[in-house]
Amino acid sequence: MPNKKSAEKELRKTIKRNAANKKVASKVKTLVKANIKQIQAKDKKVKEDVSKTIQAIDKAAKKGIIKKNTASRKKSRLMKKVNSVK
Question: Residue 82's closest CA among 56, 47, 55?
């Protein structure tokens, strides 16, 4: 437990930030998993839905929730799988 008032406030802020960041990271994972399911089902609609996922990945990287290179890697791997669907 923090001893000073400012440390208590920082703890509250950290908890709020962690919750917000976790929510965004979770959404990215959910979208990626949904796209992979569509790819496995050979759904043609996946090419339209992947843009939302890429947008979410970019936002998470911009906010610093995931690193820039991680975002790039996720997008690259996802697009590789999407392009394999015929």
Answer: 47
